[in-house]
Specification:
The structure is a homodimer of 414-residue chains. The first copy, chain A, is built from twelve helices and 13 strands. With 414 residues, chain A is α/β, with parallel strands linked by helices. Chain A has two domains: 206 residues, Rossmann fold, CATH 3.40.50.450; 143 residues, Phosphofructokinase domain (Rossmann fold, 3-Layer(aba) Sandwich), CATH 3.40.50.460. In chain A, the strands form four sheets. Chain A has a five-stranded mixed β-sheet, sandwiched between helices. In chain A, strands 7-8-6-9 form a four-stranded parallel β-sheet, with helices on both faces. In chain A, strand 12 and strand 13 form a beta hairpin. Chain A is elongated. Chains A and B meet through helix 6, helix 9, strand 9, helix 10 and strand 13 of A and helix 6, helix 9, strand 9, helix 10 and strand 13 of B.
Chain lengths: 414, 414
Amino acid sequence: MKNAFYAQSGGVTAVINATACGVIETARKHSDKIGTVYAGENGIIGALTENLIDTSLESDADIAALKHTPSGCFGSCRYKMKSLEANKAEYERLIEVFKAHDIGYFFYNGGGDSADTCLKVSQLSKSMGYPIQAIHIPKTVDNDLPVTDNCPGFGSVAKYIAVSTMEASFDVASMCATSTKVFVLEVMGRHAGWIAAAGGMVNSSIPVVILFPEVDFDEKAFMAKVDSNVKEFGYCTIVVSEGTKWPDGRFLAEQGTRDDFGHAQLGGAAPVVANLIKEKFGYKYHWAVADYLQRSARHLASNSDVEHAYALGAAAVEMALEGKNSVMPAIIRTSNNPYTWEIGVGELKDIANVEKMMPEDYISDDGFSITDKCREYLAPLIEGENYPPYKNGLPDYVVLKKSKVAQKLPTFEI
Amino acid sequence: MKNAFYAQSGGVTAVINATACGVIETARKHSDKIGTVYAGENGIIGALTENLIDTSLESDADIAALKHTPSGCFGSCRYKMKSLEANKAEYERLIEVFKAHDIGYFFYNGGGDSADTCLKVSQLSKSMGYPIQAIHIPKTVDNDLPVTDNCPGFGSVAKYIAVSTMEASFDVASMCATSTKVFVLEVMGRHAGWIAAAGGMVNSSIPVVILFPEVDFDEKAFMAKVDSNVKEFGYCTIVVSEGTKWPDGRFLAEQGTRDDFGHAQLGGAAPVVANLIKEKFGYKYHWAVADYLQRSARHLASNSDVEHAYALGAAAVEMALEGKNSVMPAIIRTSNNPYTWEIGVGELKDIANVEKMMPEDYISDDGFSITDKCREYLAPLIEGENYPPYKNGLPDYVVLKKSKVAQKLPTFEI
């Protein structure tokens, strides 16, 4: 009976811990077939440095509370393993650590990079004579993994952005006669406009202009659209992706501004857009940058997102016990209305390093809003509320004990 | 039997419509003593320009839904009436409009300015031989009105900032080993640090440094504090009020930065603080500016805030029917633990143009956090959740019909 290793990778989300909960609770149900679940402290770095957390020392109640706790409960990391050719020693070290702790299952919870790592570990472990079943579990607010209909983490960000866009628009609508006429909300998404698209989920009576990274910024057309909204509705709300670019490829956020010492000025795309409008029309504006608030907002998680996240963690363990290897459990949408879904399975070779962009027919012809097809896709992903318990006015999120496993190997520098 | 006039003033909040709901529902209960409740379209401007909304044409269900709808349902405005000496004609016009529509009760829902307007209307109307009972109803996210223990709107912003600070801190804590070590959240509050103080409501295991407008920015002490937090906890969260100032009185947000054309660079205090830390220590940072999201976030309203807001609206009508004039219903805290409160009454002469600042003993000696006394004050204000109903994944907020009353007077230019 082998032990398991679970690690969180890359930017954390409101629901990645729900996946951890699914993994650990399901493994506990199969304690006759699977040993201890170890977790990597700070993701894959925990495996490389042999800093393993013994999840068996966490209470059932604390593990259950992960389902309503945002962030990465074991720590995550931004650490991309190099190619096998460039740093085979790292992969070998991983497998040595797994061997030392009798680990036969590797659950890696992340985006495209971690799918690639998973695949390589599986391949190399076989050639090293210590075969490991490597299962990738999808997670990314960017929603850019192939095969799966959507990625856990995205639905909750989308709900947060849709609700925030709606609420701020209500605010501006009630003040625009004498005050702010333009509100700009900057959202995440450096390569793909999935998150920005969520701003288009508000009722069509709210004038929202979206700037996608997929669409070169057409200043003239944008200005005309904003102005016509202000004239028709009295105000305009703009949702700008941090990845929106000028036609020459520069990010809007990097407009070449300098501080008094000549240093490149930090920016965001939102103040740049707001300033352009002010210079052109003189409209009073406000802007917000949601940044981490959007991806950590477990208080406003989408229920379908929480259910997907948990189910994928549970399915990963089931697949491992069925002997599957180099795969990823995926969300398969079976119907839009009523929304139904099931768990499917994807091969890591089809997933590693493939980026799923927004389909062209999800963006309106003018490039400033989403199509009905996109709305149909997004609607079930923001559906349902899943509130955490509260204590003294604040969410009752759990912090785990994170007891370390005794190390058995020499130290390893990364 | 006289009609009533209700208007919303200044920046809107997550719960000002709950007050409107309290006013209208209570007036409807007393339909034998009070006639139609008219509302000002876009606040007091609606009265000056005789743009009155007939709230009797709104259904009971829609009025009830105001209790869970953020923003100003009749429109608000930033319009400060001048002094009686400077523009007596405006006050006279108000009273002419009230007279033309048989309005005997004036409910003005706002901050310090509107308390002042209320008082003047009451005084002038008496001298003009058409006495109006003017009742001010407190509302401001700034929490800066005297007499009342707290101002509706503030509790919900405070809850939003406390929860967001907690959630973003969980996020950063799980990534700080290899990524972001400093997170900066900019919050509202140009003159008073009440909103920033809410960042200090998170569990003490989270290292939060607060920058208040009341405390001159001490760059050296601040840097030392941030660095010591990063060294001890691995990360540091900073909550900075938009009103934080350098010792010479300039706002942090106005650091004199220029764009390539020499224009003053738009900023926020958050990117300025983040940049200072980056230059000094090289720590990776992220920053967010919550802006309107914080004051419109009805999805995360504090239950006590919603209850206060409704109760004050209801009490205003009761006071009017008891013959009171030039007063403001106020929240009187009768016990901290368990939290109990009742409605009291303040005289407008004690309220108009008086600003309640944070008591000195609410800010810690080092100037970077709040004291236990402050926590005791804030705790009940963020207590309880009061969720709006949802439809298709989004809050089901109401938009009123806003039917206009036929005008009877010549137009009036403001």
